Amino acid sequence: MNINRRKFLEVSSLATAGAALLNSNTMAAVINSVNIIGVNELRRNFLHPPDGTKSSCYWWWFNGLVDKEGITRDLEEFRLKGMGEVLLVNSAGGLGGVPFPQGVKFLSEEWKELYRHAMKEAKRLNIAVGVNLSSGWCMGGPWIKPENSGRWYLQSELSVTGPQKFSDKLPLPGNRAGYDHVFNPPGFKDYIDLPLEKLDYRDTAIVAIPDNDTGGNCIIDERSKVLAAKTNHKDASNFILATDVMGPVLSEWHNNPSDQPVPITQVIDLSSHVDKNGHLDWDVPQGKWKIIRTGHRMTGSRLMIAQPEADGLSIDWFDHKGVELQFENLGRILLEEAAKVGNKPKYFCDDSFEDGFPNWTANMLEQFEKYRGYNAKPYLPVLSGYIIGSAEISDRFLNDYRKTLGDCMADEHYKRFADLCHDAGILVQNEAAGPSRSGAICIDGLKNLGRSDFPMGEFWLGPNHEDENTLTDDKPYGVSRLDKGQNKVTKMVASAAHIYGRETVSAEAFTTMRHWLDYPGSLKQALDRAYCEGVNRIAIHTSTATRPKDGKPGYEYGAGTHFNPNVTWWEKSGAFFDYVARCQYLLRLGRFVADVLFYNGDTTPNLVAQKHTDPSLGEGYDYDVCNEEVLLTRLSVKNGRLILPNGMSYSVLVLPDNNRMPLAVLNKISSLIKAGAIVIGKKPLQDSGLKNYPHCDEEIKTITKQVWGNIDGKNIKLNHYGSGRVVFGDSIRHILLQNNILPDFEYTRKDGDWIDFIHRTTPEAEIYFITNRHGKPLQSTCTFRVKNRTPEIWDAVTGKINNKVNFQHVNGRTGISLTFEAFQSWFIVFPVNSSAPTAKSSTDLPQLKRVKELTGAWNVEFDTKWGGPEVVEFGSLQDWSQHPDERIKYYSGKAIYTKSFDLEAAANHKPVYIDLGIVKNIADVSLNGKHLGIVWTAPWRIDASSALKSGENVLKIEVINLWPNRLIGDAALPAQKRLTNTNIVFKKDAPLLPSGLLGPVTIQAED
Q1: Counting Cβ atoms within 10 Å, is residue 837 exposed (0-12), middle (13-18) or buried (19+)?
Q2: Tens digits of residue pLDDT in 450-468
Q3: Which ranges in 309-355 belong to alpha helices (H)?
């Protein structure tokens, strides 16, 4: 029966229809639930993953250069290849200096018609649509007025001597007072030096302090080196490590004998004596005084690559009015237009925080008192380095100030954004913890992410990421796009999802400045790294929406791995999407397994470092990181384990190496220990804030004496308190081993082998994902902390399940001998309904031996539409880019290799494989007219047993390379003779990429 493609898609979408959006409460319940299914259903869903586990992508509409034909083509192709969702982002082109033609204007009637068409088609095809709530990023637009934009505080000083009656206008602060080293916020050169009258300056408070003329009332010694960080003036690139962001603010200020602090009782509030024009009337007391005027200006920061009609100031991140304006002026339009075609966005999105470093808001003093419980006005001079009360007190105030900013961002922006979305019946997605353009912005990353239904991070590809030497721990972020071998923020996002009870850990995936240099096989190592860090929901960055009439490869974004129907290998991309969906299906089941919960402290900025092995813990264990909010409101103890409401549990809680801790946190920790928890860490000496000071410190001393007892970390390392224990001076690993908690995963290694892992536990099975982190084969005995179950090997590349595995039970764990090809990964699954008191002797991953090499000539058919010859004979396999025929040398696209060969007795009926050797860059294999499948990653072979026959066999291999060779060839041609059309410029003398089937192609059989 013939059925056209559109009709097929309509039928298939109807068959899976049932995906209409639920109300927000129901959706939240679905997100937070753990489904219990049978093992057989687990297997079925692994082979054919449900739509919800499929990949998403950033679907960029640049300059409105889209049409209905292109929209329909994109969405149909996404559906056919195995994608289930798109994130629609409207933006201007031009990033990286790449020009982009102009289409329809954003929010014009023409644009709205295209948007409605997209939403209608997405509904037909059962593709979920999220929408970025801004043009470009981060969040803002022409509706954001100066008073609702991001703010910086400023201070000015005036010295006066009393007694006198002062009546004069106070000096305004300089337009960038205290911001001498700004270099990183987007577009800062356009606004940093604007005159104050253009920056919407507003006063906050005016105070006076005694001036002793000696400098003893200021932080002027070594302590001053961290003043900029503590006062949130430190600008930093997004290359900075999380530990380097937090390090300076963790450096405690201690009192020095030479300090001459200003007593808090001598700070005079003059705010009520100043009119709206800054005129002060004051009876100055005897002595010298310094009047400190604190106000704030808009930072001036604007959106990045926004369309002109939607460009504007970035919002105030610390006041809910900004996001409310954004929702009313843009969100409502998106909802109303979608409703006209019976659809609704699945979620609205906040892209990564890449703004300037705002550090104030108009109602800062009110927010401070709400969150911290005391009046900040007397301490405002500390922002300029004055010592109020004492250096220690000033330090505590600055901690309270930064924490208030973090609380405001989490609640005023991210929580308010979520509330608005939920009220509208949709979800919210936030890349809420960077990496930020200004790496030192005062955020509690976990708290921000915890406000999101889909907490999100990102991971990049290094400029030369195929070369493992560029990814080593010693390479800077600009070279590797990694922090010491791991992605920058994904572990933070994973921890946030785990501790706040979210099912998915999302990531913008494969961001890069490379153009058409990547393909599924080159992406796998980066993807598997992210999966082991906890990611289980990727949005490929990026898929540019293009018009078919603009040709191929079409107009593209200046950044991101190009991943759309215009790439050469798109028609073969379904196998990669199957891999993504299978992995993400299993990696969302049940709960993450971690033995250790690290408490990250209450200091802000509060970020989680990249995934790493803590020296005190060692390898083989995994962990989460929690913040103050989760510790106080979500953590409890049951049967000696620390548990969260969503079922996550941990064996031990590890405290930060910090002398300060909020009294409320200490009270909670003591209650956890008393209830049976094991807590590791030194006792705090004082509170980190000023609320109820100094009584809070006295209470801390009383509590720690009871809980820590006589622990000194040397002679005495353990104290029992209630049903639990506190330990200091011993390694985390030793404590776990003492409690018979063996490593969750271990492996034998040699020559720098590295097998990474992540473990999920479900009612049906224990599920481990393990991957070879290096591009060379290895063999290892892998040990899993599972006993009395029979392991199975699930291959997400092929969908095959091997339940005949050679294993051993050793000391309550299971050992399996495994072989890995380059960057190969496996799921090791231990079903609950299996038991194995003794080891099995069958071979799990048999060795292969070469039966035959296919030497000699191949017929190769090229596509003449893309400049290739029709059919040529290769005397042997060779690299297209080295061929003397320029039609082949500069060819990009598909070529079909055909060869006949004889084979006797089909290798005694054992499984027989066709190994392709080296492929540039993806292959599709058929034998004797039977399609065997797509080969896109190591091992570059495929099971041919079902099609192979004795005697003559006909092998057909379709091979597709990448775009650059054709683009390089076209660069040397006049425009009218070029076959390609794009806005990305290649040089005519750029090096060509190896292309084609390079082999050797061999027949291999199990030994």
Answers
A1: exposed
A2: 999 999 999 999 999 999 9
A3: 320-326, 332-339
